[in-house]
Design goal:
Layout lengths: L1 H28 L4 H7 L3 E2 L9 H19 L5 E8 L2 E11 L9 E2 L12 H14 L5
Length: about 140
């Protein structure tokens, strides 16, 4: 009789355990609040060589930093890195916010100059457009 009573409880316990695990994993993917994100990874210059910046580049970097602060503070972004090149030369590089590995149990860390952001299939459309532009210009057959 005890086995008959326990049997209906086993699926219930299993479902409750599954719900608890799903909630724990889901919660761990949610980034911290924007104020904490800004504290852990404030937007800043990530240039390797600051001596190459002129006043226009500094102004551009300041504008990028302010935009990043607004994006992170509003909760629209968690981690951002932007590099601007002119004639093959890096003139601005700004990074800010936080990022972490794909594992839900890894710690958040500040975005750095060399932080990788997985983009999955985002580049397919860009690559296809670039290729078709070359085809139209008869640069590729």
């Amino acid at each position: 009789m005890t086995g008959a009573v326990m049997f209906p409880l086993v699926p219930t316990i299993s479902v409750l355990a599954t719900v608890a695990v799903v909630r724990a994993v889901r919660k761990s993917f949610i980034p911290p609040d924007p104020a904490k994100v800004l504290k852990l990874g404030p937007p800043r210059s990530c240039m390797r060589d600051e001596s190459t910046k002129d006043s226009v580049a500094r102004e551009l970097e300041n504008a990028l930093v302010e935009t990043m602060k607004e994006q992170i503070a509003s909760g629209r972004q968690v981690g951002i890195a932007v590099s601007v090149y002119l004639h093959g030369k890096e003139i601005a590089n700004v990074c800010g916010g936080i990022v972490r590995e794909a594992s839900p149990f890894s710690d958040w860390r500040p975005v750095e100059r060399d932080t990788l952001f997985p983009s999955f299939s985002v580049a397919k459309g860009i690559a296809a457009t670039a290729l078709m532009t070359c085809v139209d210009a008869k640069e590729v057959r």
